[in-house]
Amino acid sequence: MKGSLSMGRIAGVPLRFHWSAPLLIIVLAVGLGGGTLPEWAPNHSQGAYRAWAVAGALLLGASLIAHEGAHALVARRVGIKVKDVTVFALGGVTRMGQATTARDEGVIAAAGPLTSLVCGGVGLGAAVLTHDVAHWALVSAVLAWAGWANIALAAFNLVPAAPLDGGRVLQAVIWRARGDRERAARIAARCGQVAGALLVGAGLVEFFAGATAGLWLVLLGWFLSMAAVAEVRRSTLTESLRGLHASDAMRPHPRCRRLPGPLRPRLPRRPAHRPAGPLGNGGRRPDPRPGGRPAAARNDHDPGSGGAGPAPRLRPAPADGPGPPLVTSLLMPPG
Ligand SMILES: [Zn+2]
Question: Where would you find the membrane-spanning parts of this chain (predicted)?
Fold first, then answer.
């Protein structure tokens, strides 16, 4: 993803953060500190709510990385190359190669939501312990919020609409049943388009009802729709190219032009180490040949740019060769 920075590795895979990732933490922290924590654990200072809200948002961010890390880990286990994991404003995304079997596709997709469910269970368990045993109401509220958020994350990702994880599972099931991977991908992506449109609609209704958080749903739905459209296009293209070879796209008898005589050098002769001189025609220098086209200017001070040194010399072409000689075979070292 453009605009992201590498920040270490997870499960041996590069972990990247998009510039928009801090937005996710800010939005989560504002929602948690401004409403949830004062309601679930009253009678604490604003400073305490803010500090624990940031901690809770970071905790949820970490569990999001665990979700993506699970996808990456299982993909690597089944031999699929994983490029990276990127966290951005709407969550996380793992870039990897395609699964070769329906089973691998399903297992990789299911690993993320299952990890979120485990994180959710651990969070809720820890919340009960800190509340009943240690009596840390604020800490318990943060852990409970993170636990429920993870369960909600798992539930949302299990919606059968690609590219959500549930959509990938649906794709794997159809692929296994029908034996047609691209058809399965297209059906799952169509479901993704429908789910994205529904999310946009729900977000707009929520926004016009007065909840600013509705915009988040609109953004999420739009992102889901765009990814689903791209998936439909990819599977359609892949299916249309099925069974074709490179030779099918080539002209069987291309037109060739035979040169009337032997290959001759047509390079301009220049004196060695000629000074650059003023360039008055937009960085192009007139060709020394009478009536010739302007030649591209080169930087004489930069040896790497092919400065105006001695013109290349060519050795004569052999008269009895098996065919037309290559220019590279005629080049001689300068001197
Ligand atoms: Zn996932």
Answer: 21-41, 47-67, 106-129, 135-159
Q: How far is the CA of 6 from the centre of ligand 1 (A)?
A: 20
> Which residue has 């060769």 as its token pair?
321
What SS3 state is found at 69? Answer: helix
Tokens of 172: 């794997």
From ligand 1's centre to the CA of 98, what distance in Å?
Answer: 15
pTM: 0.69
**Could you tell me the two tokens for 12?**
């041996």
Task: Label residue 279 by pLDDT band (50, 70, 90).
Answer: very low
H helix count then E strand count, the chain: 9, 8
Catalytically active residues are 68
Write down how long the chain is.
Answer: 335
Q: What distance in angstroms lies between residue 65's CA and the mean position of ligand 1's atoms?
A: 10
Ligand 1: centre distance to CA 205 (Å) = 27
189-228 per-position pLDDT tens digit: 999 999 999 999 999 999 999 888 889 899 999 999 999 9
pLDDT higher than 60, residue 39: yes
Contacts of 48 (CB under 8 A, 6+ apart): 138
Q: What is the CA radius of gyration of the chain?
A: 31
DSSP 19: T
Per-position DSSP letters for 158-195, written without gaps between them: TSS-TTSHHHHHHHHHHHHHHS-HHHHHHHHHHHHHHH
- Residue 50 CA to ligand 1 centre (angstroms): 29
For residues 180 and 258, give the distance between their C-alpha atoms in angstroms, rounded to a whole number.
49
